[in-house]
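---------- Forwarded message ----------

FYI, see the Chorismate mutase record below. Original note from H. follows.
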Amino acid sequence: MNLEEARKLIDQADKELVPLIEQRMNAVVEVGKYKKENNLPVLDESREKAVLDKIGSYTENKDFEDSVRKIFQAIMDTTKEYQQEKIIDE
């Protein structure tokens, strides 16, 4: 595979990921609303750990497991920020 072909694969994966990330964000909004209505904190450490553990088990290529966990940690950090700024603090 050459560079151009590899980049096309990355572009295709990105195109497929964006709607899934949006779907996840829609769920994050609902969770944030629930947390606000019930005076719950944005951070739920046990849930976050459970999500990361599941993500690790979903990773087929174990060479990528640490990187995939870091990506999901970044996603969760971003969604916690979003919940705090756009939902809780409104």
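H. also flagged this: The chain has one domain: 3-88.
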